[in-house]
Every structure is written in C-alpha cells, then in structure tokens.
Amino acid sequence: MASNAQRVVVTYAAPLVFLSTDHWKQIYASLASQLPLRNLHWKATTRPTIRTIQELDVKLVSLETLREDQTASQIPQSILEKPLLNIYVFICEDSEAYKATTRKQIKDWHATVSQRKNQEWLLVHVVRPDQSVAQGRLFQMKTSVLDKVKADFNTDKKDRCVQLVWSADKDNPAVWADLITKIKDGILSAFDTALTQREEEVRRSEGQRQMPGWNFCTFFILKESLASSLEGMNLYEDALQQYYELEATFFQVLREKNLSWFGPLITPSSSDDYAPLLAVTKKPYRDLILANTISVFDFRVYLLARQCALLSKLGELEEVCQKTVAFLTTFARTLRDVEDTLPPFFIESWIYSSALSVVDQCDEWARPLEMPKNELASFNAAKGELVELARQQLDVFGIAAHHLPNQPPFSLSLPTSYSISKESQVEEASKTISKAELATALKDKDTFYELYVSVTNRAIELYVSAGRRKFALKLHGSLAALDVHRGRLSNALQTFTSLPAHYSPHGWTSLEAFMLNRALDIHAAAEKPKDREWIHILLHFLRAYVDDMGKDLLLSNEDSEAYVAKLVQALKDAAHELDSDTPYPDHTALSMSIVDHDAKLAETRDGSLLKVIIYNRLPCELPVDEVEVQLAGRENSRISFTEKVSQLVPGKNEFTLFCPSSSAGTYTLFSTEISLARLHFQWKHAKTTKQIRAGSVPTLVRIPRDTKALDVRLKQPSRIELGTPSRVMVVLWTGRNDVATARVQLSAPSGIQFRYQEAEVTGEDAPPIRKDDESITFLDLKQGQTVVAAVPHSDASSYHFMRVNITVDYVTTSEPDVTRNLRLSRVVATALPVAINVEDFFRGTRLFTRFTLSTTTHQHVRVRSTHLLSPNEADGVKVTSCLAQKPSVVTITPAQPGRFLFQMDANRGQAVRDPLKLQISYRMLREEVESLIELAVGEAVSETPALERLRQDMVDILVKALETDASWVELYGVTGELVVPGVKPDEDELGAGLRRAMEILNTRRSPASYGEWREIVIPVDVPQMHILAAARLEILENPFSHAKSQKRTRPLYAGQPISALLTVTTSFHWTPPEDTQVESYAMRYDIEDLTQDWLVSGRKRGDFVAKDGETFSVPITLIALHHGELALPKVGVTALPIPGEHRMRSTVIPGCETHQVHGAEKVLVLPRGGRSTFVVNMGVANTSM
Fold first, then answer.
1. In whole angstroms, what is the distance from residue 310 CA to residue 239 CA?
2. Tens-place pLDDT, residues 1128-1140
3. Which of 187, 191, 653, 1152 pairs as cysteine with 1027 (C-beta 3.0–4.6 A)?
4. 60 and 172: one domain?
C-alpha cells in the first residue's frame, strides 16, 4: 500500500468533435480551477453523525484513457482506485439536433458507465449565449433541450442533469455553483455506497475469525483498504480508527498465540537498526503481508508507521512522539527474549536510530504548522522524551565500551538483562551496527563523549523549551557525572551544587541525594575549603538523605551511619569557622513538637516554661548550642522560649524551654530555630489565611498570668483639670523583682503622641528616671515597689477610650545578663465619666448657679463632694453652697442625675478676672467595689497567709459574680453592705477564703473610709448682665389705694373689675465693668395676654427709663373671665437699643433678665351671686292610658 493516499477519480467524456475545440479546453481549465472541492458534508448510512470534509482533492481523468479491467483483482484495493463519478459534457442548441445526434451519443456513454458498480454519473449541458438570438428565444431553447434530457435519462427520480451557462463571467463561483453541488453529491453518494459494501465485507470476514481457513493477513489487507479509502477522502479520524481496531485484533491474536500467519518474531536485515522508523517504503510490507511471511517486528513497525502518518495529518504530532516512545520501550522488552539471536547491541542501535529519526520526521511534519504555545510546549516535551530515550542507549554503549563507569546515573539506563559478557561484543558491534556515528563512537572515546554531550544537550533544549525543568535538570546531572568521570571537577562541582535547588521543590529526593553526595565527593577531591558553600551542600545532602535514608548511596546501615557522623562532625567544625550568621530554612532532618500547650510559670522568677520535643532523624548525634521557639501574639507581638543544649541524640529529645517574658495570653506557634555556632536551622509555623480556610489549624500555646511578675497598668490621673495638658498615669509594679532598669514605651494605634520629656514621677520615694524622645526609663526599683509616672500626650478628646500598646524592657539585679521584654495592651478612658450642665439664676445682688451631673456611660458614678472655688477672694466674689448634703456619697446613674446648687455674691461692677473652679470628687462604682474586694481579700489573706497564691483567683471570682448579677447594687448604695450573689464556695482552701472574704464584705462601712477618690476641676466663668428686672403684678384693695395693702379683705368675683399695680424694679448690680458708667437704659414692658383667664385694661405695653435701684409702676385693671384659682399674667421686660451706638454694623441692645416676683402666686376668683329663672317644658300628657 502506498504511503500517499489516492485521490478521488472523476472521469469526463464528450463528443469527439467538442473535445478537440478550444471551447472544451476553456471549460476544462475553468472546472479544474474550482478544485479541490470544499466543505463536503457526508451523512453516512452506517455512522450516526455528519462528517465534514473541509477539502477534497479530485483527479479529472478522460474516460477514454481509463478502461474497466475485466479481470478484477482478488486483492482488496481502495475503493478510490476506481472512479466515483462519470461526467458527460455536451452542447446542443435545439431539440432537433438533440434528437438527431446528441441523444444517441449520450445513450452510448450512459450504457457504458451505468454498468459500473458503485459509480455515479452526471450530464452537463453547456449553454453558450449567441448575440444574434433574442434573450427570450434563447431561454425557451435552453429549457426545451434540458427538459428532454431529464425526461430521457432521469428514470430513477434522481436528478443527474445540470446546466452550465458559459459566458464571459465564467470565473464567477455562482456560475459553477449548481455543477459543483452535483459533483459533490455524486461523489459522496458513490463513496457511501462503495464504503457500505466494503464494511459489510469486513464484518463478514471478522465474523469468520473462529472458522478454519481464516487468515489474519488477508483480513488485515481487506480492512486496510477501508482505512486507505477513508484517508483518500480526507477522513483521517475514521481511517485512524480502522488501524486502531486492526491493532486491537492483532493483540487478541497475539494473546491467543496463533501467529501461524506471520514469519519469525524478527528477521533482522542490514538496515533494520538504522532505517527511519516511520518510512513505509523501506520494505515491501504489503507483499510480505499477502505472502504471510512478514515478521512480527516488521508488521508492528508498519502498523505504527501508518498510524503516525494519519496522526500527522490530524496535527497530533505530540501523540506521534508518545506512541513511538511507548512502542520502542515495550517492543524492546519483547526483543530482549531473542536478544541472543540478534547482532550485538542491535536493540540499542535500533532504539537510538528510530527515536532520532522520528524526531526528525516530526520536525518535518511540523514545519508548515502553526502551533499554539501550549501545544508547542507539549510537542517539545514529547520530542525530548524521544531524544532522552536515544541518550539512554548511549549509556549502555558507553558502559559496555568502558567509556562510562558502571554506576549511577549511567547504570540506571542498563536493561535488566545486561551482563558483563556483552562488553566483549563491543568490537563485533562496531562492525555490525549500521549507523556510522554509533560505530565510530564505540571505538573512539572522544567521539563518544562528543556524541553523548550533543544528544544530551538536544534533549535539554527540548525540555527547557517545553517548560520541563525537572527533566532538563536530571540530564544536567548526567553531564556533571560525565565531567567527573572525565576529570573536569570544577565543572562538575558547579553543576552538582546548582541542581539540588531545582530538585527539592518537586520532591525528587533520591536524585537530589545522589547529586549532593557526588558534589561532596568532588568538593573533597578538589581539596576545596569547607566554607559556607560546602555547608549548604552538606545540609542539602542531609535533608535528601533523611527523606530516602540514603538508599541511593548503596551503603550498609553501619557504613551509612559512620559516613553521616563524619559529615556531621565536619559540619560542626565548619560552623564554628563561619564569619557571619547563616540561616538554613525548613531542614527535614529535625522537627519540633510541643508536648504541653499550656505553658507553666517559672514561679521563682518572671517567665514561663514550655516543654517541647525535638526529633532528630539523622542516624547520629547532632551537636547544637541552643533551641529557640518563637510564639506570635496579638498585633504582631513575639515572645521567645530558649534553652542551651549540647547535642541532639537520634530520635526524640525532650527539653524545657524558658521565656523571660511574663506576657500572658494565647499565642500561636510562629517559628523554631536550632543554632549550631553561627549556623541556624529555622522553621516557620505561621499559617496563612488560605491555609486556615483549607483546614490547617495553627498550633496554640496558652501562657497563664503571673501575679508576682512585673506589671504595668494605665489609668487616668487622680486629678483632671480641664484646660491643662492631657496626661496618662503609668503605674509600674516590680512584683518579685529588684529591677535595675525598666524602659517603658507607649504607642497608640490611633496616632496619639506621648511626650516623654515632660513626664513626671509622682508619689514618695520617687526613683531616678531617664527620659528621651522615645521612652522613659526607671532606675533602681525595689521588690514590690509601685512607681507612678504622669506622661503628657497629644489631644485625645475625640476618643472616649484610648488603646495603648506598652513595651517594657527590664533587667533584674538577680539576672543582669537577661533583658526581659513585656508587651501589654491596655485601654484607658480619655473622656470624662460625667457630663455637666450649668444653669444661672440672677436674684438682685445674688447669683444662684445649679450644676447638673449625669453619667456619660452605663456605669454608676459615686460623687463624694462638689465645691465651687474662687481663685482669689480679693475679687469680691463669695461662694456659698446651698445644699447641706445628707448622704456622704451621692450615686449618679444613667436614670438619676445629681444636682448641686451654689450661691454667689459679688460687688457691683467688680470684674472677676479668673474663672471659678468646680471641683468634683468622685470615683466609678466599679472601681470602688473592686478596691473593696481587694481590701476584703487582703484581710482574708492576712488572716490565712496560705491563701496568698489564691489571692488573684479569689478577686476574679468575686468580680465576675458581681458582673453577672446586678442585684447587689441597690443594697450596697443604701447600707454599704456588699452581698455577692451566685457564689457557692467549695469545701476546699479556695472556698474557705471566699467565705471569709464575703463575710468581710457583708459588714457595713462608709464608702469614704477606703479606696482612692478622683477629682475633676472644671473652670466656670462668672456670668454678667446689664439689667436685672424684677416684675411684680399686685392686686389692690380699691382703685384709689396706692400703697400696698397688708391684707386684702374684699373677695374677687368673676366679671368684676379688679384694680392692680404693675411694678418693675431694675438693678445694674451685675453689669459688666466697662458699662458701669451708664446711668439709665430705655426699657419696654409687655403684659402677657391670657385671653382664656383675664382681660387687661390700661397700659398693658409701654416704655420707661430704668435706673439702678429704682422702681417703675403703672396701675392697670384686670377682669377675671371665670371663677377659680387663677395665675396672674406674666410681665415681659426687654431693653431697647442704645441710641447712637453700633457694633459690627448693628445696634447695641443691653442684656436683660426678668424675674417674675409674682410667678408663684394665684388668686381665688368667686362666681358672681344672683337669681336666675328657668322655664322647663314637661311635654303633653298621655291620655290613652
């Protein structure tokens, strides 16, 4: 079977006279220009889906030159070897000519082609328009001839006649559309009929496989004719499927061990180990198959070549390479069974030559193709596998010819059947191997090395272009091994040291261990210093060693342990020679796990203890200096547990690590570091958000609170004075320690700045301090000492609370070499706990000021005292408290504010330069109760010193109980007794302490007798007023009485005129100092219009001139509109603008405040007496009863 598929044959015929004209030549040329056919849609009767043929080559052949062979061959041929369509072209201008000559010519031709099986025919009537003939007549002429042709020859209701209008526009595709469509239909119809018949023959033959006389080779030729036919129609996938089915049938025959239709497994010829694998013309394969003498080797090669040829037409070049690799490796194992009958190294030579020939053939097929980037990468990777397969055969050649050592990585390519005896066949193989470059390489070492490097680099380039770095690196390793063998140690060392970094991420531990082991050996052979580079090589080797336990080192356990121990000792010596710290991350030889996730307190010193296990996977002891475990807390805080260690034995090593920090809380495992001199093994344990979501939970460690360790708290100053710089109080307690230095740093995430240079230490026995721009340092602190420092900070009025991160670095006198680090996060209130509202009431020479205090939070505030202080008595201001507080402490709640009233006397016109100060002594109820609990627990502990270690637990239990249930608040506010609800002490030491503390809390005590009180000092400005008016409306005894009656004796009746006197007394006592020279002001009064109660007669509105201390009066008449107790109308008094004075382009109106002297008075109005007569209609009497 030829390698190139046949084309579809279409015959043409025409009257001999017409064939000799130029007109026919033009038609033929134009028809040929429409080829190949495109977009054929084949709906096969035996296939469920429509096949689309994008392009189909058609060969036009004269019917005269192609005669039907009367003696048909018994060998199945492609159905395309015979024409699928026969075309007859004729010209006939009128019906008479058709009847006379044309019809007989068509009948003769039709009689010939209609006898041929599986062929279609088509009549083409060519019409050439004549200019002398009218268009209408021409149309009639065409129609009549074509109709007669269809009537004579379309006998089976299938239209096989088409008309071609030949005109100047002959190259227009529309002219040929009908004809091309008919040609497509005819070809597909004939092909479908022939293919269906051939498929039926194949099925019939396959069904007879179990019958005597069935021949696989005959069946193969028959079925292959199907594949060739489909290939000729460009149906490559269908054709390939036929070969896959043939291959499956062959394997089934092979399993049945019925190979009587084949020759031997292989009959090697002189070119079998050299000829291109995919060339189907190198042997008469078809004849050998028909003769039943083809060897299995040749048959498999031919079948592979046909499959690959079809794959190449489909563009599946990657699959071509993959099938070839699979075939070469699997069939080579089959050939190993008869290797003794083959020439020396025939299999290796065949694989080498075949692999490279397939690569060259694929490159030739790929040249006209444009592959996408991802397909090109996969194609290059597949080619790389073929080239590497060829390179592996060079390993076998090299070891046999002693060009290469019989050890990894070269020995990895040796077949299992390889024996030393083959080395004696090298001389013979150099004569029998057909490929000249192989034969020369066997005899000449330099030629071999050059060939080896060339083929290896070719594979590396293909792998690199495909993005297969691991495969390329493996080949780099073999080149490095070759450099070692050739004595090129510097090149080999550079390669071996660079390769493991690429292997490690992919888990190629065996190859990595081998490469690193070779690097160490080469480093020693080259007598290079054991520097940082050597340490990294060794550490990489140890990591790979523990992953596969040195399986590729080919050493016994004893030798392996001694070898590793020697390397570890050398590592120790080299680590001490390092000039700088050298980290090494994530070494697998060591691992750490936490034994107890609850750390223990060190008890005798600040710090905590953590038990860990270090697992050493090396077979020998590993000398180390220190183990460090780092934990991460909130806001990126870190604490470290360390322990000095001398060595790690193989297996488990349990240590207790110490952390000098007393920062309590829950932490996550962050990192581990094991140090050997300046070499640091490091592991990161922190989990990313993505890892946590995937289910990788971080390791948690809980550190308990150490109540005796150094501690720092923040609080508001005990005295807050508005208008002065804001401060925060830093309270440092040394606990059990004598502290040499304690450096405190504060930072607020909100951006508030602390001014350490202005900090001050308060209290007695203040220690010396050092201040700089970043911190404050306390010096020489004693055990149990509390030191308080006030640190000013920037404005924080926009925040109710301020979060502050505290960092304390301190050194104790007992451990001067240890710097402890304490990180805390505290929240301190910056807003005042109370809001203050001020109300002023002027009464003549006196001013009454009422302060209303309300809490700004949900907490209760306890107020002990309030004072309104004058900074200077000489200012003429005298302040007197108006309320004698019955309770010693006032409680302010969200629902109940506190009110405090003060009276102020001042001289007229006396300027108060400085504002008064309102001083409030207070504390929060929570602070009061907590201090009371501390006091009670302290008293209980003093009675039973054994409870000292439980002091904080007792406080926490009592505070938590009070937080949970607020029923104690009311009783405590009244009596001072604190009854703790919900606490049921157990019968143990803690329970006894709680019972005693609760007994102490149940006793009455004054809140002022314990705890610390805070102060707030608020500046209060003394108000000023130009005019104070006291308005009075007084009822007179009679209209003529001008003096005030001591007692009114006459009753008042509704509707009766009532005489009254309006008086307005004005005072300038609280006038501003700058206006004391003003003697009078224009004023206006206005009586309130109470139309529901009173009618006012007289001057109800008027102006008057006000002077200091004088009274303006005016009589009016009131009429009560109804009886009852009625309030008198109010009088409004306002000041009028000062004439001639302007400020800011507006008139000046003096300030004025009016007091209604009669505001609380009511008068009794009686109803008027008299007689009234009413007539009531009682209705008409009912007489029906």
1. 8
2. 999 999 998 888 6
3. 1152
4. yes
